[in-house]
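Many introductory courses stop at the sequence. We go one step further.
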Amino acid sequence: MRILITGAAGSIGRVVTLGLCDNGHEVVGLDLVPEPEGFTGNWHTADCTDPDAVAAVFAAERIDGVVHLAGIPDERDLPSELTSHVVTTAALLDAMVEHRISRIVYASSNHAVGRTPRPADGQGPVSDDALPRPDTFYGVAKVAAEALLRLYVDRYDIDAVVCRIGSFLSEPGSTRSLSTWLSPDDCVRMVEAALTATAPGYAVLYGISNNTRAWWDLEPGRRLGYQPLDDAEQFVAQVESGTDDAEEAGHVGGPFALERFHRPALDPR
């Protein structure tokens, strides 16, 4: 497949770009910054919030599918989050409809359900039927982007796979991340499965590795062909306990669900 990856210069973008290329796919990169050293494919330095710039990329390239990774990765005011995550998604979806591209993989976040209480012992993990319960404005924007994707799936019969990513790290570094870790190799497996699943329609999966302590259900991803192989448990001996572990384990969003992230919606600080 020939895949457009937005945010291709970011931490996840670089890993996914290399991984998909290694697996025989052709990648077209799109980011606000020039291509990283060593990237040999076509690259577009453009802003995904600009629909004309996005349209120009689609007009210039033959594309089979889109992996949308671009966006602010932390908490800002509500307008900034909506622009970064919803407006960019809208620009891509409109271009996809115009050019009859039917597959998009979206990097959503566990923070779309971050205020969901952590499953207690004996309870099942949080699954894809969980109601939206964002923990931040970042999480609100991810929920809104998911809803926009659902609308375009229903209107235009495209396929959209929403990946609610946990903690993308080279290795887990906290007690919480023993439950939420997504390894780089599993991240590539996840994206490739989402790109190649047969007729998923609108589907949600949780972007975590095969963690023994997982808080989220991997079965929705397995139905799409995502078979994670790594387990954070291999690092448990080197993860030190923290003073905030118990507090951060109250909700699946961890620290994002705590009062330290409370702020007015229109405060641009």
